[in-house]
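We give the entry.
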Amino acid sequence: MASLPSPAPDGPDDFLVELRDVRFGYGERAVLAELSLCVPRGKVTALMGASGGGKTTVLRLIGGQQRAQAGAVLFEGQDVGAMAQDALYAARRRMGMLFQFGALFTDLSVFDNVAFPLREHTALPEVLIRDIVLMKLDAVGLRGARDLMPAQVSGGMARRVALARAIALDPELVMYDEPFAGLDPVSLGTSARLIRQLNDALGITSIVVSHDVGETFGIADQVIILADGKVAASGTPAEVRASADPLIRQFVGLQAEGPVQFHYPGPSMEQDFGAEVAG
């Protein structure tokens, strides 16, 4: 599978995150096979591909929840996998993570959910924490919802609360794991615009893992599509859309038939059911 060219960097320091020949798997199942990719600073990079292709695994490797079995995962030029615990925690404070479906603390209010990382990682006085929390909630349009509990907000609102929490410490990198999953069309469009607006207004770098081609292509500067543990295509949304690769055309065109099969590889029907199938 031929990869499209990534946008040319202006210099060696223009990449906030790099993966170099990374291999990773769970037991005998290989997920990433000598994967190499770059995430440019200040841009929105979309990480896409079929389910089980290693997209969320890449986020875990960047955040240090998992360690590469070979190769290097670099954040600001430093290998995350080689960091000692203190250095890893310091690096994580410069990252924000929006988990799938938000992952809010159900017994904490909206305000306290956003305040949590500030109270956990800083010694700021409560009066200053209050101002920061309200500013972050205002940025996602939910300053008025500060006293509500997670059970009292909609799915789209919960995702925005989680985003306010993810940017509470003013991170350099924000990673989004399926930020559009389960949202209605209005909430989906609002969330997509918010990711783009916050990225530009705050000067951060964003990595968006998503299966929603339309909304994701609409906000991304760079699209990377993973397949078979490697980069199948990378480039601007327009470049990826123009790819002649059958796998890329299947994914971008939302086609049911193509190189990506519906059935997970396994024994044949005859092997599993024998005479029943033959009969």
About this structure: The radius of gyration is 20 Å. The mean pLDDT is 83.
